[in-house]
Amino acid sequence: xxxxxxxxxxxxxxxxxxxxxxxxxxxxxxxxxxxxxxxxxxxxxxxxxxxxxxxxxxxxxxxxxxxxxxxxxxxxxxxxxxxxxxxxxxxxxxxxxxxxxxxxxxxxxxxxxxxxxxxxxxxxxxxxxxxxxxxxxxxxxxxxxxxxxxxx
Length: 152
Known about the structure:
D-tyrosyl-trna(Tyr) Deacylase, Chain: A; 6-stranded mixed sheet; 3 helices; 8 strands
């Protein structure tokens, strides 16, 4: 699975003018399931997201996690993270999971996040969304968890 994490002061997802999910300080996580991904990769990705120390401590060093600060987690599906641009100017998305598998893994990730973290908001899988955020820092971190035996 692939994620792009953005440390935010606030973020929200709108769908046709309606707010689907919003958070204050915390992490905006854009996530994408790839073809060979399973719940195992979703679990590993979530564990990394929740424990990644990218928030400032009292000395101003990035030494605290989203859990440490009690921040929000906004999880948004984004299959375009699997884009392969090596073959020209039009991206290929052949490495992205099928829509059915992508949706299943997205919903699994969200359900597990809600069990592990008190504030989880979401977008809606497969929907045209507008994501609004105030990136804090800016701090943007790419994460990739590959299935066992897969190379990325």
